[in-house]
Design goal:
Blueprint (H helix, E strand, L loop, with lengths): L7 E4 L6 E9 L3 H9 L9 E6 L5 E10 L10 E8 L1 H13 L3 E2 L4 H8 L5 H12 L3 H11 L2 H24 L2 H9 L2 H28 L1 E7 L5 H9 L17 E7 L2 E7 L9 H16 L2 E7 L17 E6 L1 H4 L4 E3 L2 E3 L8 H11 L14 H24 L2 H19 L5 H9 L6
Parallel strand pairs: 1-6, 7-9, 7-10, 10-11, 11-13
Antiparallel strand pairs: 1-2, 2-5, 3-4, 4-5, 8-9, 12-13
Helix pairs in contact: 4-5, 6-8, 6-14, 8-13, 13-14
The chain binds guanosine-5'-triphosphate, potassium ion and magnesium ion.
Length: 442
């Protein structure tokens, strides 16, 4: 199915100078436009050297031209790739010539959007293209590639299909009221609902990890003044990023450093030590520290192991997982150790920092070799969570009233929520929002 009537063009390579620059055309007039630009075209999927000329016949550049006839192309339409020299000025002139010959400049994400509309990939796969390009670590890139190949979509579709299958079964039973009583009461339906719920929960967890690979993890380092927060940031990032002194209240602004833990892009935020203070600058720092911990995916609560007054920190949010780090064990005489989410380290000697990375890896649900199985986005996590909400409601209805009708309705809503991920149930408005966040030429 071809949805577009016009032909789009864009520079596909990043802005700036390079050895080669690629221009991509997609749409019904791609080959006609390319022919005007560079004469007779080579046979499909083979490269040929051509001169690129503007409508006046002036030569702009020479390079390779490759034709990918639809539907076996990235967008599903006729696509032509022009590979010229990687000069922004030259590429812009070739682009302008394509426009003169009848193409339209593509908007952000339009190539991917056409690929989606022509069923070349589902929405989660199209998003994975963008996530692959944006990947900050090799683990994130590998995970995005697995999503691009459909690993994530397959699990989402599998669960959606199982929800639909159970709904159909329940609805069929409702059509035979005499048997409904037995059918709903014999526990088989309840068992299947429970099975779907477990599947949804496992998927939610894996997607949560996949989301972290895409967006990165935010860790807030918080604690009392002088606990050694800035020293810990410097030790983990392996450079002298933050000012460290023996003066309590040294750090005021939030200072961020990005590191890699188990293949995951992690942004550490060093913050001001939390205490009551009359100093206006410091109290603003404390306010920012508190804001930072609420926005974090994980909190490092740093405690001075030599401080007998290391009472709990006020205002630690309940909703964010917390790792307690007893620091300065080189002074307290303790050994590096770990019990659950409690580790003992020295930011100065580096003892125990490996244990800390281990806790983080476990806490974020990463496997040993790092990373999850596929990449995902917050939007996907929200949709899976919503599906879980509907499954739970259906389960509650079944328990409370034994009503098959209400269960069937909740199962339908759960499957619809999952359909938003792959784009089966997605509104035009949402599609517009997703693709417009891509860059031009993608
Ligand atoms: N011996 C030892 N000293 C440490 C360790 N970590 C930090 N310190 C010292 O403790 C003092 C405070 O360290 P900082 O890293 O500035 O502490 P902070 O928590 O960032 O302090 P504020 O920004 O003021 O809240 C400095 O003199 C550090 O050298 C450690 O593991 N061992
Ligand atoms: K300090
Ligand atoms: Mg500090």
């Amino acid at each position: 199915m071809n949805h577009s009537h016009d032909t789009i063009v864009a520079i596909a390579t990043p802005p700036g100078r390079g050895g080669v620059g690629v221009i991509r055309l997609s749409g019904p007039d791609s080959t006609a436009i390319a022919e005007k630009l560079c004469g007779p075209l080579p046979s499909p999927r083979t490269a040929a050297l051509r001169s690129f000329r503007d409508p006046e016949g002036a030569t702009l550049d020479s390079g390779l031209v490759i034709v990918f006839p639809g539907p076996r192309s990235f967008t599903g339409e006729d696509v032509v790739e022009l590979q010229g020299h990687g000069s922004p000025v030259v590429l812009e002139m070739i682009l302008a010539a394509c426009v003169d010959f009848g193409a339209r400049r593509a908007g952000p994400g339009e190539f991917s959007q056409r690929a989606f509309l022509n069923d070349r990939m589902d929405l989660a796969q199209a998003e994975a293209v963008a996530d692959l390009i944006a990947a900050a670590t090799d683990t994130a890139a590998r995970a995005a590639h697995r999503s691009l190949e459909g690993a994530f979509s397959k699990e989402v579709d599998g669960l959606a299909e199982a929800l639909v299958a159970l709904r159909v079964w329940v609805e069929a039973a409702l059509d035979f009221p005499d048997e409904e009583i037995d059918f709903l009461a014999d526990g088989q339906v309840a068992e299947r609902v429970a099975g779907l719920r477990a599947r949804q929960e496992a998927l939610l967890e894996r997607a949560g990890t996949g989301r972290l690979l895409t967006s990165g993890v935010r860790i807030a380092i918080v604690g009392r003044p002088n606990a050694g927060k800035s020293s810990l940031l410097n030790a983990l990032s392996r450079h002298d990023a933050a000012i460290v002194t023996e003066v309590p209240g040294t750090t005021r602004d939030v200072l961020r450093e990005t590191i890699t833990i188990a293949g995951l892009p992690v942004t550490l935020a060093d913050t001001a030590g939390i205490r009551e203070t009359a100093d206006r600058v410091e109290s603003e720092g404390v306010r920012r520290a508190e804001r930072e911990m609420h926005a974090a995916d994980l909190i490092f609560w740093v405690v001075d192991a030599t401080d007998p007054e290391a009472h709990p920190l006020p205002g630690l949010p309940q909703s964010v997982p917390l790792i307690r780090i007893d620091n300065k064990i080189d002074l307290s005489g303790e050994s590096p150790s770990r019990e659950g989410r409690h580790v003992r380290v020295s930011a100065v000697t580096g003892a125990g920092l490996d244990l800390l990375e281990q806790v983080v890896t476990e806490e974020l649900g990463l496997n040993e070799s790092g990373g999850g199985e596929y990449s995902a986005r917050q939007r996907h996590v929200d949709a899976i969570a919503l599906a879980g909400e509907h499954i739970r409601r259906g389960q509650a209805e079944l328990d409370a009233s034994g009503s098959g009708e209400l269960l069937a309705e909740e199962l339908r809503l759960a499957a619809d929520a999952l359909g938003e991920i792959t784009g089966r149930m997605t509104s035009d408005e949402l599609l517009g929002r997703i693709f417009s966040s891509f860059c031009i030429g993608k």
